[in-house]
Request: fold
Amino acid sequence: MVHHRRGRGRLCPCLRARDGGASRPAQLTAAFSAPACIGDTGWVNQAADSLSLRRAARVFFDFGSPRIIVAVLAAAIAGRVAIGGWSWWDLLGPAVVLAAQPFTEWLIHVFVLHFRPRTVGRVRVDPLVARKHRAHHADPRELSLVFIPLPALAGLVAGVAAICLAGLPLERGLTTLVTALMVLCTYEWTHYLIHSNYRPRRALFRYVWRAHRNHHFRNEHYWFGVTVHVADHLLGTFPERGDVPVSPTAKTLGVRQAA
Ligand SMILES: [Zn+2]
Ligand SMILES: [Zn+2]
Ligand SMILES: [Zn+2]
Reply:
């Protein structure tokens, strides 16, 4: 049994628990010290370790990506409110963003995050986000790997803002940008919460939580959605858990570690 690596020399909580039990870390690390190492089938569900949403949110905003998204979102909302000029057309951009989101998540996860490194001529193509996503699969409990890498986030936010603001009248563009940023924030929050020690209390979150855990611990070729699984259902990547084998490559995505 391979014990889970914790960053900065922290001891795996399952060992800590065996070493007398009482020495649970007191602070935020405790909130995320999921009892791991019971095979590789996933976290053990210990109700006593469940994190409150408020505490989870506080830790969420310790990370750069949520802070940046919320800051840009606040600026976009302020700008949208300041210019006024509301119309029914303001609903169109948000409708498109929301309708596309299941497929946006699915396509990015399948074709970008799970991109297999390849050599084109003499150039090795292995994008940062794909490398970081493999690191996330290798160590799903490492929270710093849960979030969109900052260079990718910067490019994504700038790209979406450019499309919205250059492609639409300013009012509609800002409304659409606000929606896209809210969707992005929801994605980061949901993915983070799934990987935190928060335990689902309601059916909807339990559903996405189970599905993403299946992606990490059952078979990485299924369950590509994070906040929504419409695309998984339509495209045949939402099987019954028992109908697909436990994948030996769920932690590596089948890519050998580069030296
Ligand atoms: Zn362990
Ligand atoms: Zn994940
Ligand atoms: Zn993945």
